[in-house]
Design a protein that fits this description.
The structure is a homodimer of 206-residue chains. Chain A has seven helices and four strands, in the order βαβαββααααα. The first copy, chain A, has 206 residues and is α+β, with helices and mostly antiparallel strands. At the A-B interface, helix 3, helix 4 and helix 5 of A face helix 3, helix 4 and helix 5 of B.
Chain lengths: 206, 206
């Protein structure tokens, strides 16, 4: 397999993290989104939606969307629950992550740390709204994690990998994690999982 | 089962549509999002993230996120593929829908038809960006549908239900569907499925 990815991306990190947990070998192909390398004809032939990460399978086809990659690489492991309802609850948190969490927390981080747009009224108001919505998402997580170690069924699943990716770097988007003690304790539990790698740790050589 | 829902919502319609396809009976509980009925203590006890649709199961627990509800109600049917890679491709399109399609097309429709915010610089610029990104999403769909009848594996799946919900009402968000002939032909195929119901068709009585 090959992973087309941008190292600072939390979405890419989800793929790198599950590949590490599963001990799978792959070729790492860096793609610089700041240089619009996701908009070239070559990249768009792999993902017409122009986004990393993209997983190239051994048959030459491609799988896109970080949380679909988590499903594909996790389904036949203990990172995916056995019961249908628990599976649906994992899905619920994956969609929460992509709709209520990532567009706020990851985008705020990307703007503050990488894109650094001019502070036009649009960006100033949009950033403020994203930070408010991001805090609401962190509060939903903190409330859910009261009294349970992981998001679904008491076990570490792909829902935890998906939510860890941008939560642990939320301070880079201007989010203070101090008000969310259950989130902070959960981050430590995820970090303590055997096979864990840091976000920008170099992928293992193939 | 009970479905907490707002009838004009495409996310709610996904749940109503799969319940109709599967012939499942349920109690319909209308929730008026314009009157902030998703922000009451009672509703937040069902979904702390304050969004419809919410499916209340017979054991009294709740499942949120429209695409997780599609997975839960579709997995044991021919709306969900057999092969892992096809399942992952269905997931890919579900996440495309919630990240690249719904926040642009559904939000533009909601603002123009329901919320009607003051045309402040923030709303004017954000709406323009959503309409541009929505057109890009429709183009990705149109290209993908060239030469194939449905999104994954040649069969009607929950990916088609998810994408149909807001695509067929995209003109209400200012999107012209004329430039996307493959999308228009696919909309007709989805509409022609046995068991199809219209978006605001009354749910069947229980």
């Amino acid at each position: 397999m090959k992973l087309y990815d941008y190292l600072p991306s939390g979405n890419g990190y989800k793929a790198r993290l599950i590949l590490a947990h599963r001990g799978l070998r792959y070729e790492y192909v860096p793609v610089d989104i700041l240089r619009a390398e996701t908009r070239t004809a070559g990249f768009l032939s792999r993902n017409p939606n122009g986004r990393i990460p993209v997983l190239e399978l051994d048959d030459g086809t491609h799988l896109c969307e970080s949380n679909a990659i988590l499903f594909y690489l996790g389904r036949d492991s203990d990172l995916w629950p056995v019961e249908l309802l628990d599976q649906a609850r994992v899905m619920q948190w994956l969609f929460f992550e992509q709709y209520s969490h990532e567009p706020n927390i990851a985008t705020a981080r990307f703007w503050l740390g990488w894109l650094k747009p001019e502070p036009t009224p649009y960006y100033v108001e949009t950033l403020a709204r994203k930070q408010e919505a991001g805090r609401a998402a962190l509060q939903v997580m903190d409330t859910h994690l009261a009294g349970q170690p992981y998001f679904v069924g008491g076990h570490f699943t792909i829902a935890d990998i998906a939510l860890y990716a941008y939560t642990h770097v939320a301070p880079e988007g201007g989010f203070d994690l101090m008000p969310y003690p259950n989130v902070r304790a959960w981050l430590d539990r995820v970090r303590g999982q055997p096979g864990h790698i840091a976000m920008t740790e170099s992928p293992r050589p193939t």
